[in-house]
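> @MW can you paste both from yesterday?
MW: sure, first one:
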Amino acid sequence: MGGIIDKITDFIKEMLQGWVLNNLDTMFSDVNDKVGTIAGEVSKTPSTWNSGIFSMIRTLSENVVVPIAGMIISFVLIYELITMVIDKNNMHDFDTSLFFRFLFKACIAVMLLSKTFDIVMAVFDVGSHVVTQAASSISGSTSLDVQATLTTMFNNQIDTMGIGELIGLGMETMVISLCMKIMSVLITVILYGRMIEIYLYVSVAPIPAATVTNREWGTIGTNYLKGLVALAFQGFFIMVCVAIYAVLVASVAVAGNLHSALWSVAAYTVILCFSLFKTGSLSKSIFNAH
């Protein structure tokens, strides 16, 4: 009778062990895949991330926004000329160099407006270069083989686990697996949200560019440029977060308890998502973009 009970117990334990091992094998696959592709995603410029969207945004900008920017720059230049005349005591202190300065400023304003897209792409090219250099510095650390470490720990402790502990561990792995899938979706939302925000910024680029040369209105263009640089360098801060995450998760390999290792990795992944959410506001605060 005791032999039958032992066989039933062994059978149940084998089923539970297979269940736990299967959960461990699939638990971090989504997050691993997403974290491993972050470097490639954030290093792309608007033109290379999705050429179809970029082409549409550029067409909208040229056909809809540029005419509005043309009206704005006309108003700004006229306002600039009136201001120059008034500043010279209503032309009582007339100086012919005034019109040369106005013509020079107008030429610069028109040139900036005509080269707006080139300037915007140059900003993101610099940001892409910074991210690529950061990615090469932490190469090999962004894709994390957490399953192998946890599976090895489980195999080492498997003989000492009873049915109750295996059931508890199975429930833990199910909950953490669900959390990891949610974290993977959140990482996707962060990466795609950043690119959509970039495309929105790029679409209206000619309007703030039309105000740059004026003293009073120039703050619009200056703030826009700061926001553009902040978005470009947000990719660098994302790479720093991923590098920190890789170092934290690497410590799981030396953990002695499987339960604490599981929850530690889950906590680190939650911290990663929270940090990624904060990179946008951090970058804007550093570059004083508002």
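MW: second:
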Amino acid sequence: MKEFGLEEFLAYIGIEKKYSAHTLKSYSGDLRDFISYCTQKMGLDSLGSMTHFHIRSWIAELVNQKLEHTSINRKISCLKSYFKFLKSSSKISHNPMRKIVSPKNKKTLPKFVKSEELISLIENSDKSEDAEYMNIVGSFAVSILYQTGMRSAELLNIKISDINYSRSTIKVVGKGSKQRIIPLSNELCQEIRRYIIIRSKLELIQSDHLILTAKGRKPYPKLLYNMVQQELRFSTHSEKKSPHVLRHSFATHMADNGAEIKAIQDLLGHSSLSATQVYTHNSIQKLKDAYNKAHPKAIR
């Protein structure tokens, strides 16, 4: 892979662009698959002979594999960054991605959990010190994810020092190492304090991270996913039961209750307003439903 500049590109987006470890892993896998396809199936032996036909052939192969358009577009985005880097570092004389058009994604509204279901789950969870520690962590994770809208990866990286009780805020480091400040309700501040007291009683604490396993370590993402899924399993009728659906629920409920879209964007840490605007569609649908049920001309 050395002759294709893969390691240099990964180092560039990791160090200079500060892409997350998750994105680095995804890009590395996508590019290795792409290069393997070009070298093994199409006999390509150098970057100089790469054309848009090779790329289109690979995309056609992905379509034949029945991949979702969102997955294909992510891989195309990866290739765009890769070839832009190769062109800027003079490893290729032309950029074959200039002739590539991404397929349109199907427009789907974000899945979310009803507010009354989440509030009931949070208020009725066992917060006593006698409860099993990992069950406490699971219910606490659901609460803080829903009340802040942060990503699961962001929660796993939160440290106790990131919490400012005097200002009722929490510092979050998002994608691209961008920092943002999220306000905390008085109730959530108290909940965090209670959890930290229980956390402090672990036999061995090996990290300053807020969320710890029973062994005092930072959890793996899959463990957090499983804990949240377990908490939501019997508490909601929503199809999706993941940490990310709590982020969708946070944004949807904020929009439903009249929050400005720019404020929601800032809280979520979206770099583009278009990524946040999808949450307004659920609110618009509620307005349409209210109109159709109540307006004399609509109910005829």
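> thanks! The longest strand covers residues 169-173.
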